[in-house]
Amino acid sequence: MFFMSRKKAEMVRAEDALPGRAAAIPTADTHFLSGRPLTLSVPEGMEVAMFGMGCFWGVERMFWKLEGVWLTMVGYAGGFTQNPTYQEVCTGQTGHNEVVRVVYDPKVISYETLLQVFWEGHDPTQGMRQGNDVGTQYRSGIYTTTEAQAQAAQDSRAAYADQLRKAGFGAITTEIVPAPSFYFAEDYHQQYLAKNPNGYCGIGGTGVSCPIGTGIAQAG
Q1: Tell me, which fold does domain 42-195 have in CATH?
Q2: How far apart are the C-alpha atoms of 173 and 144, rounded to whole Å?
Q3: A Pfam family matched by this chain, by name (predicted)?
Q4: I want to staple 219 with a disulfide (CB 3.0 to 4.6 A). Which of 98, 111, 132, 208 is the partner?
Q5: What gap in Å lies between CA 144 and CA 151, rounded to an integer?
């Protein structure tokens, strides 16, 4: 068991990753709560953010509750396998992370506020795991869509790292990279905790506040 957990916590090499498939995995047509089409299209004036924080069920719930968030969706990103299934991602042989893609209105909610929810909503010092969930799919990641987002993410990491150090935590392991291809997760994963309010999700924050997150976004 320990050996399997250790292997799942090691990033697979591209040449060893599962091949995947050309066709997209079927997913939900609409958002379970808002009824809006579950699509990669972005309405005019909206912007996109993408985060990995552990089990994407609980992460998505954190973001869909925020005023100014237009649409949330869960999926896989940051790996090598084209159009992976959940079962494939769970093997650790795709390289993908469980991520939430957030479409938001920057006139209502700032990117910095989304970053604050990200940092405070999980423990970004745990490497390839989050709580009892072990594997590369549970790693901490910020996947940026603009240079301004990338700068804001780097600045926020530096600020939060200082706060975590003072509280006795180790170094931040969060990856901050340009947003890779996003692959929709299966229908039943979308808005899972709205459909299953008592469902398990093993994420939890550090209890340390992140000193950002007010005002209208400057990033984006």
Answers
A1: Peptide Methionine Sulfoxide Reductase; Chain A (3.30.1060)
A2: 16
A3: PMSR
A4: 111
A5: 9
